[in-house]
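Q: Here's a chain of 245 amino acids. Please give me its 3D structure as tokens.
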Amino acid sequence: MKNIITLLLISVTFSVVAQQKFDHSTWDQAVLLNVSEDGNVNYDGFMRDSSLLYRYFQELSENAPDETWSRNEKLAYWINAYNAYTVKLIIDSYPVKSIKDLKDPWDKEFFKIDGEWYSLNDLEHKILRKFGDPRIHFAINCASISCPVVWNRAYTGENLQRALDRQTEKFINDPKRNIITPNVIVLSKIFKWYRRDFKVNGGDVEDFINRYAKIRITDQDSKGYKEYNWNLNETKIDNSAYALD
């Protein structure tokens, strides 16, 4: 009898834990439909699929992370929230050529989570960066060409670590965003703006990059930073063949 009761308690516990995990499938469907493999965004498509987006905003608003969530689940939630609300910011003023054409795009408090107003800067600087994982800079996207590409899947607690490594490696080795050759180093300004974040485990920016770069930074003579292209990371995708629930 004791064994049966124990098994029942374990079953109930697992059921409760499963219910506490946030389901990002709505965002997963939205980005799969409207973001290309190389990370370009179809904002027209997001506008057509606005019901899907607003369902996800409601889910985010009503299910803020709490102490029962794992670190990976919390981080995945806030990364997805940042990317989803960046899309909202753009389509609310679409068509627009650049996020910088908008007034105070990062400081504008335009969405609520658990009854509290937030801005994109709140999510990035007050929440995401406090996790102490510099890879988040390659997972969040500011709707611009020079930003790390938008992943066309949702981050989850289960896929987070692999996804962060993949997005970081992709960004560092992308010649559109970083030039790393045996003779020349021209880096994204992300490594300049957030230099402090990359000083982990006693290392520096170069140490961090060398963990992922196909060509290592050593003693290259020519070094500098690329101009940041703030134009919209936009493309047109025909998603008319897909049916939404």
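Q: Can you summarize the key feature?
A: The first strand starts at residue 111 and ends at 113.
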